[in-house]
């Protein structure tokens, strides 16, 4: 059984401001952390957590135009995981002041992300954080051909990176699971961003 999640932590905005920047309506309907629909909750006065539907035709948190708009005078930390894909797809990234600052992706199914694809300059300490995962992966790959047992460790580096910058560990319980999220809907008559 696998796990799928698409989440952003927005520093510098509350839930209402996130909805405005995404040109979406903030409803009174609430969902929990495991909902796979666009929703937002304000964790503190200037920190919002945004959930997204990774199965949507055009997921909000994968739209570069919307991420640029959302990150104007704010910082957006992104995390996506889809463990339903073979070894899994893991991505952590950061947008600040309207541009992508960095992105780290791992998916064993794609040649360019089979190891760790790093775009931009990730936070200081990421290389040290990833080193033990790279070593374990090299050791596992060395024995995989003989045993046929392909084990993936590199996704752990991406998970740890997101946790280090947001405090959210997707496979643990914490404050992010205890708060309610208000559903975001496309505005009537406006652009449909998702």
Q: Can you write the helix and strand succession as a string?
A: EHEEEHEEEEHHHE
The biggest beta sheet reads: 9 strands, antiparallel
Treating each run of at least 4 consecutive H or I residues as one helix, how many helices? 5
Computed structural class: alpha+beta
Please state the CA-atom Rg, rounded to the nearest Å: 17 Å
Quote the beta fraction: 25-35%
Q: Give the spatial strand order of the biggest sheet.
A: 2-9-3-4-1-5-6-7-8
Q: How many distinct beta strands?
A: 9
Question: Mean of the pLDDT scores?
Answer: 85
Compute the separation of the termini in Å. 27 Å
The stretches of 5 or more residues where confidence is low (pLDDT under 50) are none
Form type: elongated
Count of spatially separate domains? 1
Percentage of residues in helical conformation = 25-40%
What does it look like?
This protein has about 190 residues and is an alpha+beta fold. The chain has one domain (about 5-185). Helices cover about 25% and strands about 30% of the residues. It has a nine-stranded antiparallel beta sheet with strand order 2-9-3-4-1-5-6-7-8, with helices on both faces. Helix 3 (about 125-145) packs antiparallel against helix 4. The longest helix is centred in the C-terminal third of the chain and has 22 residues, at about 125-145.
């Amino acid at each position: 059984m696998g796990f799928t999640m698409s989440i952003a932590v927005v520093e510098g905005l509350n839930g209402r401001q996130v909805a405005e920047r995404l040109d979406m309506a903030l409803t009174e309907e609430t969902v929990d952390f495991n909902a796979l629909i666009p929703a937002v909750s304000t964790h503190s006065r200037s920190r919002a957590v945004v959930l997204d539907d990774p199965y949507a035709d055009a997921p909000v948190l994968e739209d570069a135009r919307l991420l640029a708009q959302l990150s104007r005078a704010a910082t957006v930390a992104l995390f996506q995981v889809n463990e339903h894909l073979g070894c899994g797809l893991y991505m952590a990234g950061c947008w600040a002041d309207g541009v992508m600052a960095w992105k780290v992706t791992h998916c064993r199914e794609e040649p360019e992300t089979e190891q760790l694809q790093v775009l931009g300059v990730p936070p200081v300490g990421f290389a040290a954080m990833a080193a033990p995962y790279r070593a374990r992966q090299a050791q596992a790959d060395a024995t995989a051909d003989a045993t046929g047992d392909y084990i993936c460790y590199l996704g752990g580096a991406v998970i740890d990176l997101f946790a280090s910058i947001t405090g959210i560990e997707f496979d643990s319980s914490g404050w992010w699971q205890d708060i309610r999220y208000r559903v975001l809907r496309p505005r009537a008559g406006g652009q449909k961003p998702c």
